[in-house]
C-alpha cells in the first residue's frame, strides 16, 4: 500500500486497534511490527489521518540507517518541531536538550534527565492540544534516542500524549525489549491480496496476475511493485527476472526491482539520489540534527518512475521506501560512494559529527586533518553518551593517522573509552590491533592494555611494572599530556588492589619524582587509598571540602574522591551525587564509572545500617559486572556481599562468597580482595559465636598490637580483633591492640575509627573509671548514630560490663538499646546475644529501650509531632521554637531511641508505649 491509498484493503483488525489507540483518553504507546513492505507506513498514515481529524497535533519522524550511530539524532528529529514551536521548554529543560544536541558544552544528561525534560515539554504542548508522536523505521533510531523514547513511553499514561512506532520484524532494535504494547502486522489474506492487486492493476493478464500473487505472498508492497516492474508487458508474462526465485527473500527481490529502475536513470540523477541516501534523506520532517540534510535537486525523473515521493507537509522529497534508499547505495560503485561522502562532508562542514561520518567513509589514505576531525567528533560523542560512536571514530582516526605515535595514541584512546564503556571485547581487539612493533609499549597502548588486564583479569604484578615504566618514559618527555594523568591514576588503582608494601612505596616514589606534573588530586588518592593509618592524617578536610561543591568535576574524578572518602569514613557526603549520577553513567555508556558508583553506594548503605538496600545495590552492581566481564569488580562486589551476609547472620552464604573471592584473588596476589574475604570470615565467625575462628582470621589480616602496612582491613577490623581476643581469653593481646589504635592516632583519622577505638579501649580497660570514660566518649560521639552497628556492639559490651560490676538495673537500658538496634539492622547473631544478656537481667526479652531512654517532655513532644509527619518548621510553629532548635532536639532524640531515620520514629514511639516493666 502506498501513501496515496485512501482506502485500506483488509487490515480491519489493525484499523480497529489504531482507532482505539487514537481515541483513547489516556496517553499510551504502541509498537507496530512487521516485515519490510507489509504496510506499516500506510497504517501509520491511517492513524495520522484519524488523529488530525480528532484535533491532535501530529509530529512525525523516521529512523534512518545512515544516522543510527549519531547520538540523539533521532530524538532531535522528533523534538525539533516542538523546540522551535510556540510552547517551549523552561530554561532547565532547554539546558538538558542543548547538552544532548551539542548546542553547548556540558555534562551528558542521563536517560532519566532527558526523559523527564521530554515529558515536561510534551505535557506543556499537550495541555493545549492532544499530541501524537509517530516514529517510522524505529529500528534505525540511535540507541540513546530509543532509550529516551522508551523511558517516556512508560510514563505518559496521565497525559494526552501518544507514541506510535513502526519497526522491522527482521532487524533488532531497542524497542524489542522496551516492554511496550505491540501490534504484529502480517501478510494480507489471499482474498485481500487479490483485491489490492486488482484495484491497482486491473489490466494484468491472468497468468501474470497469479504469478504476482504467488511471488508477493500477501506483501502489499510486492503486490504493487511487481506488476509495475513489468510495465510495458501487459500480457500474461512478467519480464525475465522479475518474478525472482522463491529462495531469495522478498525484500531482496524488491530491491532488485528498484535496482532496475535506478539503473535506467541518468548519471546526474543517480548521483543526486546517492547523496540523499547517504545523508539520510527520507526522514519526515527533514531535520535530524543541527544543520539540515542534503536536499536533492533536479530529480523529476526519479519521481516519475516511482522511486521518490513528495512529503505533503514540507514538500520535501523522500524515498518511496527504505528499500529504495538501500538499493541506491548498493548499486553505486565504491568510488561513487566516496565522492558523494566527500561532497556531503563539505555540505556539513559546520556540523562536527555529521561531517565526521562522511569524512570517515570518504577517506582512503592517511590524512591527519581528517583524523583530527574524527578525534574531535569522538570527544563530542563521548561527552554526550555516544561511547560506541566514539570508539568507531577513534579507531578510524587511528587508521588515517600519518605517523605511528598518533596512530598508537588514538587506538589507545579508543580502547580506553571502550574499556570504560564496558566494551571489553572490543577494547581487547583494539589493544591487539595497536600492538604492532611500531606501537608496542607506547604510553597509550600501555594504558589500555593495563586497564584491561587489571579489571578483566586481575593482573596487578605485570601491570604495575608496565605502567611504572610508561610513566618513567613520559616523565622526561616534553608534553606528557592527559595520558600521564590517566597512567598515574591507574598506577594508584593497581597499587590499591595489590595492597603490597613494596609496590606502594614504588608508586609513592614515582609520584614524588613527577613534581608539578602531578596535581593535588592524585596526591589525595595516593595517601588515602594506600595506608590510611600511616598516610591519612590531614586529608579529611580537603576530601570534605571537595564534597561540598562537586560542580564542574568529571564523574570519574568524583568517583576517585569518593574512594578516598570511603577510606576516611566520609562516604555519606558523596552518596547523593553517586546515586544521582549512576543511572546517567550506565545509560550513557560509561558503565565502568557506574559500576564503581554502585559499589561505593553499597558501602555507605552498609555503614549507615541500610542493609536491605545495600543488598539490592550490590546485586545490581554484580549483574552489570558479570554482564560486561569485569571480573575484578565482580569479585570485589562478592566480597562486600559476603560481609553483608555475615553481618546479617547468613553465615553459609557469607562463607560461600568468601571462598569464591579468596580462590580467585589469592593466586593473583590481589591483597585488597583477600583481606576483604578474610574480613568477611571474621564477621561470619563472630556472628556465629565462633570466637576462636574469628581471632585466627583477624590476626591473618594484622597481628595484635600493630596495623599491617597497606592493609585496608587492618584498621577496619579493630573491634573484631579486640572482641575475638577478649572472648577467647587473650586479654593482653586485646589490650595491646586497643592501645596501638590510640597511639596510632586513629580517633583523629575518621569518625568511625574514633568510635571503635574508644569502644576497644573501653572493652579492654582494667579499671571502671577508664572504661566509663571511654564508653562515654564512644556513645556521645557526634557521629555515633551514623554507624548504628558499631554503636550497638559497643553498647552491648558496655551493658555486659555494667551487669557484672553494677548489677542488672544499671545494664538494662544499654542492653535493650543494643538488642533493638541489632533487630532493626537484621544482625541476627548479635541480636540473639543481646537478648541472652537481657534475660540475665530478668527483663522481658522484648522490653523496649524507649521507656528507659531519658527523653525530656519537650523531646517526647517533638518526637510525637515528627512521627505524625510534621516538618521541623510546622513543629516549631506549634511549640514556639525555631526550626533549627527542633532539628537539634531531634538530633539528640535519635541516638536515645536507637534509630537513625525520621521514618523510624512512629514505630519506636509505639513500642515505647507498649513496654512492660521488668519483673
Task: Please write out the topology.
Layout: H1 12-23, E1 28-34, H2 40-53, E2 57-62, H3 73-83, H4 91-100, H5 111-126, E3 131-136, H6 143-153, E4 161-168, E5 182-184, H7 190-200, H8 206-216, H9 220-229, H10 250-263, H11 267-278, H12 300-304, E6 308-310, E7 317-319, H13 322-331, H14 334-347, H15 352-362, H16 368-383, H17 387-399, H18 404-420, H19 424-433, H20 443-457, H21 461-475, H22 481-498, H23 501-514, H24 520-530, H25 532-535, H26 540-548, H27 555-567, H28 575-587, H29 591-607, H30 611-628, H31 631-647, H32 651-665, H33 671-688, H34 691-701, H35 712-716, H36 718-727, H37 731-743, H38 751-764, H39 768-779, H40 788-805, H41 808-825, H42 828-841, H43 857-867, H44 872-879, H45 883-897, H46 905-913
Parallel strand pairs: 1-4, 1-5, 2-3, 3-4
Antiparallel strand pairs: 6-7
Helix pairs in contact: 1-2, 3-6, 4-5, 5-6, 8-9, 9-10, 10-13, 11-13, 11-14, 14-15, 15-16, 16-17, 17-18, 18-19, 18-20, 19-20, 20-21, 20-22, 21-22, 21-23, 22-23, 22-24, 24-27, 26-27, 27-28, 27-29, 28-29, 29-30, 29-31, 30-31, 31-32, 31-33, 32-33, 33-34, 34-36, 36-37, 36-38, 37-38, 38-39, 38-40, ...
Domain HTH luxR-type: 848-913
Protein name: DNA-binding CsgD family transcriptional regulator/energy-coupling factor transporter ATP-binding protein EcfA2
Keywords: ATP-binding, DNA-binding, Nucleotide-binding
